[in-house]
């Protein structure tokens, strides 16, 4: 088992491994390059197996962290149990701290969750009354559907609607989101669902597609459009498209109760994933980093 920085991996072998063995989006180089400050991979043999590690490096210390829009790493390829056990030992030895999320069905005791809908032609039968009512409301409104992404209009919409509503939507997160859209928009792996009223873009969502999975990345709508059911209407169209193509629809997930409730209004089911945390960094390093993070928040 060796650790390779992202600029040292064999891109062809890596892309083949991700395409053939990867289930989720978070091992894709285009995704990682957009969101991670640094990233590398632990490799087994000649790319028989691998796992992604996003990390930061300051003052001589490296620590695993959770980038914006990054849910979890996954076991890529072939790993036996002894190799997995060794991985955890090596990871903790190589990185002084960690907040490391992992898709791992062997652990089902985690509070980390996201939501999915399986491809079933009867999917709408799982919608609750609120979802059905809001979709019907949108269908009877002046909203018009568009699928052609006009980046400037969409970025303006999402910036104006989200900047003042969530502390997580800071300039760094905005930059990462913009890079994600740019990295995927020219490859055929990005789907856009937009709502227009009176010639104005009033709502839109971005969905990424790969293999048999489609994942909701981000979206928003003007307040008046939300009241008209725009977000339910757009999400319903995205779910329908996924089901028709026999794909899992992945909401990206959230433990935030309001977001989770919105997802489960469509009958989405919770999926658990694993979180590991550790720290062997000296006190002075943690103190310096905490002061630095606090100062960055104040400046924002």
Description of the molecule:
The protein is α+β, with helices and mostly antiparallel strands and 300 residues long. The model has no long low-confidence stretch (mean pLDDT 89). It starts with a strand and ends with a helix. Helix 2 runs antiparallel to helix 6 and helix 4 crosses helix 8. It contains ten helices and 14 strands. Strands 1, 2, 3, 4, 5, 6, 7, 8, 9, 10, 11, 12, 13 and 14 form a 14-stranded mixed beta sheet that branches. Strand 11 and strand 12 form a beta hairpin.
Give a short account of the largest sheet.
14 strands, mixed
What overall form do the CA principal axes indicate? globular
Q: What's the SSE pattern?
A: EHHEEEEEHEEHEHHEEEHHEHEH
In which range does the helix fraction lie? Answer: 25-40%
Structural class by helix and strand composition: alpha+beta
Mean pLDDT: 89
Detail the poorly predicted runs: none
State which percent range the strand residues make up: 25-35%
Count every beta strand, where a strand is a DSSP E run of 2 or more residues. 14
Q: Can you count the helices? A: 10
Radius of gyration: 20 Å
Q: Report how far apart the termini are.
A: 41 Å
Pfam families: Acetyltransf_6 (PF13480)
Protein name: BioF2-like acetyltransferase domain-containing protein
Domain BioF2-like acetyltransferase: 167-253
Organism: Wandonia haliotis
